[in-house]
């Protein structure tokens, strides 16, 4: 009787001290962990350093071009122009960040630890995407801040630059940044290899541009190109003038470039054997 009572006591103590898995790995905690990986991992840390350095260099070059009247007329240079010039560079780094965030689990074999601590792979992926969306929003805000610094500098030098930031163009700029990071995520999920996904990110848009160029010479391809290549809809987003059939074209572009690769990649992410 005494042994049975002791056994029951041990079971009760073990049950009372056991922490549920869900309580140990909340979504907010998982997002914080993924954000910390940006600076904890060597690839993520150097990517952030390189991104900041190149952004500062582009900002300095842009300011010097305006001050020297080498690229644009100062009177036509606005906060939107400065923000876009900086944001174009930031967009590429956001895409690379999206790729490395997804593929590092497999190429650096950190999935062995990640999925051991959090077996629910869907929650891990959701946390990564949420973290990347937050990083994108922060990058957009920082691009505006750097652009404002350029405009303030040029005005202090006596140039007639402006503070115009049209809502439509700014929304298009933010949407393009979001497209870049989601494209990086989609390619990372689909290929699950850092080098292959990075090459695909740079090569596929080049092929799309070639398709658009050929489409200008061959009418059948020219009619199809706006529905399958992102160049046209991204140009419309930058100008803030998406309307009519362009919304349908945007939908098909998102389906081809983001939704389908992400769906296939998510299926692989959930089922791939960790080794």
Would you kindly provide a written description of the structure presented here, covering whatever features stand out?
The chain is mostly helical. Helix content is 82%, strand content 0%. It has twelve helices and no strands.
Low-pLDDT segments: 1-23
Question: What order do the SSEs take from the amino end to the carboxyl end, as H and E?
Answer: HHHHHHHHHHHH
Principal-axis shape: globular
Task: Describe the largest sheet.
Answer: none
β-strand number: 0
Q: In DSSP terms, counting alpha (H) and pi (I) runs of 4 or more, how many helices?
A: 12
Keywords for this entry:
mainly alpha, globular, disordered N terminus
In short:
By secondary structure, the chain is mostly helical.
List the helices and strands and how they pair.
Blueprint lengths: L1 H16 L3 H4 L2 H14 L1 H26 L11 H29 L3 H7 L3 H36 L10 H25 L2 H22 L3 H10 L2 H9 L5 H27 L4
Helix pairs in contact: 3-4, 3-7, 4-5, 4-7, 5-7, 5-8, 5-9, 7-8, 8-9, 8-11, 8-12, 9-10
């Amino acid at each position: 009787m005494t042994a049975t009572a002791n056994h029951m006591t041990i079971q009760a103590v073990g049950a009372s001290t056991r922490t549920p898995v869900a309580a140990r790995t909340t979504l907010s905690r998982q997002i914080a962990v993924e954000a910390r990986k940006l600076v904890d991992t060597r690839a993520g840390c150097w990517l952030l350093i390189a991104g900041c350095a190149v952004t500062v260099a582009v900002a300095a070059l842009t300011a010097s071009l305006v001050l020297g009247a080498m690229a644009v007329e100062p009177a036509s240079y606005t906060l939107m122009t400065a923000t876009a010039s900086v944001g174009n560079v930031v967009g590429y780094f956001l895409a690379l960040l999206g790729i490395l965030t997804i593929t590092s689990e497999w190429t650096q074999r950190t999935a062995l630890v990640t999925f051991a601590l959090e077996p629910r792979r869907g929650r891990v992926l959701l946390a990564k995407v949420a973290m990347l969306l937050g990083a994108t929003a922060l990058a957009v805000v920082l691009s505006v801040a750097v652009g404002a610094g350029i405009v303030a500098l040029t005005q202090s030098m006596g140039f007639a630059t402006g503070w115009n930031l049209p809502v439509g163009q700014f929304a298009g700029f933010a949407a393009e940044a979001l497209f870049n990071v989601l494209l990086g995520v989609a390619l990372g999920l689909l290929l699950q290899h850092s080098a292959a996904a990075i090459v695909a990110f740079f090569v596929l848009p080049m092929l799309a541009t070639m398709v658009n160029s050929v489409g200008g010479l061959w009418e059948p391809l020219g009619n199809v190109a706006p529905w399958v290549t992102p160049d046209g809809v991204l140009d419309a987003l930058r100008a803030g003038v998406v309307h009519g059939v362009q919304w349908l074209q945007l939908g098909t572009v998102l389906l081809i470039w983001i939704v389908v690769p992400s769906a296939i990649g998510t299926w692989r992410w959930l089922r791939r054997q960790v080794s």
